[in-house]
Design a protein that fits this description.
It comes from Anopheles gambiae (African malaria mosquito). InterPro entries: TM2, TM2D1-3-like. One of its GO terms (cellular component) is membrane. With 189 residues, this protein is of the alpha/beta class. Among the domains are: 66 residues, no CATH class; 64 residues, no CATH class. The protein contains six helices and seven strands; from the N terminus they run αββββββαααααβ. Strands 2-3-5 form a three-stranded antiparallel β-sheet, with no helix packed on it.
Length: 189
Protein backbone atom coordinates (compact mmCIF):
# COMPACT_ATOMS: atom_id res chain seq x y z
CA UNK A 1 0.00 0.00 0.00
CA UNK A 2 2.91 2.32 0.65
CA UNK A 3 4.18 1.91 -2.93
CA UNK A 4 0.86 3.19 -4.24
CA UNK A 5 1.07 6.29 -2.12
CA UNK A 6 4.62 7.16 -3.28
CA UNK A 7 3.82 6.72 -7.01
CA UNK A 8 2.02 10.06 -7.50
CA UNK A 9 5.11 11.89 -6.23
CA UNK A 10 7.29 10.18 -8.91
CA UNK A 11 4.85 10.71 -11.77
CA UNK A 12 5.07 14.51 -11.82
CA UNK A 13 8.91 14.74 -12.11
CA UNK A 14 8.97 11.92 -14.65
CA UNK A 15 6.36 13.63 -16.84
CA UNK A 16 8.26 16.91 -16.59
CA UNK A 17 11.48 15.24 -17.77
CA UNK A 18 9.66 13.55 -20.66
CA UNK A 19 8.07 16.83 -21.79
CA UNK A 20 11.45 18.61 -21.63
CA UNK A 21 13.06 15.84 -23.70
CA UNK A 22 10.33 16.06 -26.32
CA UNK A 23 10.78 19.82 -26.54
CA UNK A 24 14.54 19.49 -26.99
CA UNK A 25 14.31 16.97 -29.84
CA UNK A 26 13.92 18.86 -33.12
CA UNK A 27 10.80 17.72 -34.90
CA UNK A 28 10.69 18.70 -38.56
CA UNK A 29 8.52 17.44 -41.37
CA UNK A 30 11.07 18.58 -43.98
CA UNK A 31 13.97 16.40 -45.07
CA UNK A 32 17.03 17.80 -46.85
CA UNK A 33 18.39 15.44 -49.52
CA UNK A 34 20.11 15.43 -52.90
CA UNK A 35 17.18 15.99 -55.27
CA UNK A 36 18.88 14.30 -58.23
CA UNK A 37 18.26 10.99 -56.48
CA UNK A 38 14.48 11.47 -56.14
CA UNK A 39 12.19 8.80 -57.52
CA UNK A 40 9.28 9.30 -59.86
CA UNK A 41 6.32 10.73 -57.98
CA UNK A 42 8.51 12.73 -55.61
CA UNK A 43 8.98 15.59 -58.08
CA UNK A 44 7.43 17.20 -61.16
CA UNK A 45 9.54 18.15 -64.13
CA UNK A 46 9.44 20.69 -65.71
CA UNK A 47 8.01 23.10 -63.15
CA UNK A 48 4.51 23.99 -64.44
CA UNK A 49 4.69 27.44 -62.84
CA UNK A 50 7.53 28.44 -65.18
CA UNK A 51 7.24 28.77 -68.94
CA UNK A 52 9.99 26.46 -70.10
CA UNK A 53 8.66 25.68 -73.59
CA UNK A 54 10.15 27.95 -76.27
CA UNK A 55 7.28 29.25 -78.46
CA UNK A 56 9.53 29.37 -81.56
CA UNK A 57 10.84 25.80 -81.41
CA UNK A 58 8.07 24.16 -79.34
CA UNK A 59 10.79 22.38 -77.34
CA UNK A 60 12.32 22.96 -73.91
CA UNK A 61 14.34 26.16 -73.66
CA UNK A 62 18.08 25.61 -73.93
CA UNK A 63 17.86 22.36 -75.89
CA UNK A 64 21.36 21.41 -77.09
CA UNK A 65 22.38 19.44 -80.22
CA UNK A 66 22.83 16.34 -78.03
CA UNK A 67 19.04 16.50 -77.33
CA UNK A 68 19.20 17.44 -73.64
CA UNK A 69 18.03 20.53 -71.74
CA UNK A 70 18.40 21.58 -68.09
CA UNK A 71 15.01 22.50 -66.66
CA UNK A 72 13.71 23.60 -63.27
CA UNK A 73 11.78 20.96 -61.33
CA UNK A 74 9.81 21.00 -58.08
CA UNK A 75 10.01 18.43 -55.29
CA UNK A 76 6.94 17.48 -53.25
CA UNK A 77 6.16 19.14 -49.94
CA UNK A 78 8.45 18.11 -47.14
CA UNK A 79 11.56 17.63 -49.30
CA UNK A 80 14.24 20.31 -49.32
CA UNK A 81 16.98 20.04 -51.93
CA UNK A 82 20.52 20.31 -50.61
CA UNK A 83 21.68 22.19 -53.72
CA UNK A 84 19.22 25.10 -53.52
CA UNK A 85 17.96 24.81 -49.90
CA UNK A 86 14.34 24.89 -51.16
CA UNK A 87 12.02 22.62 -53.13
CA UNK A 88 13.27 23.58 -56.61
CA UNK A 89 16.20 22.00 -58.44
CA UNK A 90 17.48 21.51 -61.98
CA UNK A 91 17.51 18.28 -63.92
CA UNK A 92 18.48 17.24 -67.44
CA UNK A 93 15.54 16.20 -69.60
CA UNK A 94 15.37 14.87 -73.14
CA UNK A 95 14.27 17.21 -75.90
CA UNK A 96 14.47 17.46 -79.67
CA UNK A 97 16.98 19.98 -80.99
CA UNK A 98 15.55 22.06 -83.82
CA UNK A 99 17.31 24.33 -86.28
CA UNK A 100 14.48 26.23 -87.97
CA UNK A 101 12.92 23.63 -90.28
CA UNK A 102 9.12 23.46 -90.00
CA UNK A 103 7.33 20.16 -90.60
CA UNK A 104 4.28 21.72 -92.21
CA UNK A 105 6.42 23.77 -94.61
CA UNK A 106 8.40 20.70 -95.70
CA UNK A 107 5.22 18.68 -96.22
CA UNK A 108 3.47 21.43 -98.19
CA UNK A 109 6.54 21.91 -100.39
CA UNK A 110 6.66 18.18 -100.99
CA UNK A 111 2.99 17.97 -101.99
CA UNK A 112 2.79 21.04 -104.22
CA UNK A 113 6.35 21.62 -105.47
CA UNK A 114 7.91 18.21 -104.94
CA UNK A 115 8.26 17.56 -108.67
CA UNK A 116 10.72 20.49 -108.78
CA UNK A 117 12.68 19.33 -105.72
CA UNK A 118 11.68 22.31 -103.57
CA UNK A 119 11.20 20.09 -100.51
CA UNK A 120 14.71 18.66 -100.77
CA UNK A 121 16.25 22.09 -101.31
CA UNK A 122 14.40 23.34 -98.22
CA UNK A 123 15.62 20.42 -96.08
CA UNK A 124 19.23 20.86 -97.18
CA UNK A 125 19.63 18.12 -99.80
CA UNK A 126 20.61 20.14 -102.91
CA UNK A 127 21.87 17.17 -104.97
CA UNK A 128 18.62 15.23 -104.64
CA UNK A 129 16.65 18.45 -105.18
CA UNK A 130 18.51 19.12 -108.43
CA UNK A 131 17.98 15.51 -109.56
CA UNK A 132 14.24 15.77 -108.84
CA UNK A 133 14.10 19.10 -110.68
CA UNK A 134 15.78 17.65 -113.79
CA UNK A 135 13.60 14.50 -113.91
CA UNK A 136 10.31 16.15 -112.91
CA UNK A 137 10.31 14.40 -109.56
CA UNK A 138 11.45 11.08 -111.07
CA UNK A 139 8.35 11.22 -113.26
CA UNK A 140 6.17 12.06 -110.21
CA UNK A 141 6.99 8.71 -108.56
CA UNK A 142 9.80 10.29 -106.52
CA UNK A 143 7.46 13.05 -105.47
CA UNK A 144 4.97 10.52 -104.09
CA UNK A 145 7.72 8.66 -102.25
CA UNK A 146 9.02 11.92 -100.77
CA UNK A 147 5.54 12.93 -99.59
CA UNK A 148 5.27 9.62 -97.74
CA UNK A 149 8.81 9.85 -96.31
CA UNK A 150 8.34 13.42 -95.08
CA UNK A 151 4.83 12.76 -93.71
CA UNK A 152 6.11 9.79 -91.70
CA UNK A 153 9.12 11.90 -90.59
CA UNK A 154 11.63 9.38 -91.96
CA UNK A 155 13.33 12.16 -93.94
CA UNK A 156 14.28 15.13 -91.81
CA UNK A 157 16.58 18.12 -92.13
CA UNK A 158 20.07 17.36 -93.44
CA UNK A 159 21.82 18.83 -90.39
CA UNK A 160 20.34 16.16 -88.10
CA UNK A 161 17.96 18.46 -86.27
CA UNK A 162 14.30 17.74 -85.70
CA UNK A 163 11.32 19.43 -87.32
CA UNK A 164 9.56 22.28 -85.56
CA UNK A 165 6.19 20.72 -84.75
CA UNK A 166 3.63 22.02 -82.22
CA UNK A 167 4.24 20.58 -78.74
CA UNK A 168 1.09 18.45 -78.95
CA UNK A 169 1.30 18.09 -82.72
CA UNK A 170 1.79 15.02 -84.96
CA UNK A 171 5.21 13.97 -83.65
CA UNK A 172 6.23 10.43 -84.52
CA UNK A 173 8.58 8.74 -82.08
CA UNK A 174 10.31 5.67 -83.45
CA UNK A 175 10.68 2.87 -80.92
CA UNK A 176 13.65 0.69 -81.74
CA UNK A 177 14.69 -2.62 -80.26
CA UNK A 178 18.17 -4.02 -79.74
CA UNK A 179 19.75 -7.04 -78.07
CA UNK A 180 18.73 -5.75 -74.62
CA UNK A 181 15.05 -5.33 -75.50
CA UNK A 182 12.78 -7.88 -73.87
CA UNK A 183 9.42 -8.67 -75.45
CA UNK A 184 6.66 -10.14 -73.38
CA UNK A 185 4.81 -12.95 -75.17
CA UNK A 186 1.17 -12.25 -75.90
CA UNK A 187 -1.67 -14.67 -75.15
CA UNK A 188 -2.34 -15.35 -78.82
CA UNK A 189 1.28 -16.22 -79.75
Amino acid sequence: MQSLIRTPHLVAPTMTVLILLLLLIPISSEVEIDCNSLRMGQFICPDPALRQIDPKTQQLRGCTPDNKARVWCVAVEGIVCSETKNTSFTREMPCKWTNGYHFDTALLLSVFLGMFGADRFYLGYPAIGLLKFCTLGFMFLGQLVDVILIATQVVGPADGSAYIIPYYGPVITVVRSDNWTYRLPQDNW
